[in-house]
């Protein structure tokens, strides 16, 4: 079991790296680069970012509410434990898992009309909010089941599991977006 302080410090580092990646690798790209799909059926960089925004619209308010409830002193900064659901959720989205997964139709941004500026700005704001939530998390019980799973709200993740899920999911799709943008740069720069 990992200590809560180490767990949260790691999540804070990962979130900061996500903010840097978004600001340096993706924000400067043109609309054409961000909208380029590397292959038929794959997402563009912009679609990857919008997918994260859609998940953030569910998980960030749920985390804000869950983490606002202070923990009893005995539960504050207790070692982080994981349930079967939490481990499985993380395993599906961890960045090292290269296996593609189907997403829920409402979370699939394909064929959406997307504005690069609006999508990137929303994700920037969501990452700022995520960093703030991680900073406030030491006052809460990370092992309390309080965050409803997006696809079946009767199931709940523990607060710590939900934080890890959101960060790992963002890492996975920002890496995907960076690869798509790289392919977009190559395609946009090719002579006609």
From TrEMBL:
InterPro entries: DinB-like, DinB/YfiT-like. Residues 22-177 form the DinB-like domain. Gene3D superfamilies: dinb family like domain (1.20.120.450). Transmembrane segments: none annotated. This is DinB family protein. It comes from Hymenobacter rubripertinctus. The lineage of its organism: Bacteria, Pseudomonadati, Bacteroidota, Cytophagia, Cytophagales.
């Amino acid at each position: 079991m990992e200590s809560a302080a180490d767990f949260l410090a790691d999540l804070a580092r990962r979130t900061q790296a996500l903010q840097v990646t978004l600001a340096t690798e993706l924000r400067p790209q043109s609309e054409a680069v961000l909208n380029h799909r590397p292959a038929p059926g794959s997402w563009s960089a912009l679609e990857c970012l919008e997918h994260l925004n859609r998940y953030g619209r569910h998980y960030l308010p749920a985390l804000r509410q869950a983490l606002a409830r202070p923990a009893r002193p005995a539960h504050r900064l207790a070692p982080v434990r994981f349930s079967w659901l939490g481990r499985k959720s993380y395993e599906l989205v961890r960045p090292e898992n290269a296996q593609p997964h189907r997403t829920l139709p409402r979370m699939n941004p394909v064929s959406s009309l997307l504005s690069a500026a609006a999508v990137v700005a929303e994700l920037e704001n969501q990452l700022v909010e995520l960093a703030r939530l991680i900073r406030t998390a030491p006052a809460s019980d990370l092992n309390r089941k309080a965050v409803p799973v997006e696809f079946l709200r009767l199931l709940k993740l523990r607060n710590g599991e939900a934080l890890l899920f959101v960060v790992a999911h963002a890492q996975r799709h920002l890496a995907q977006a960076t690869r798509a943008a790289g392919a977009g740069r190559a395609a946009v720069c090719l002579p006609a």
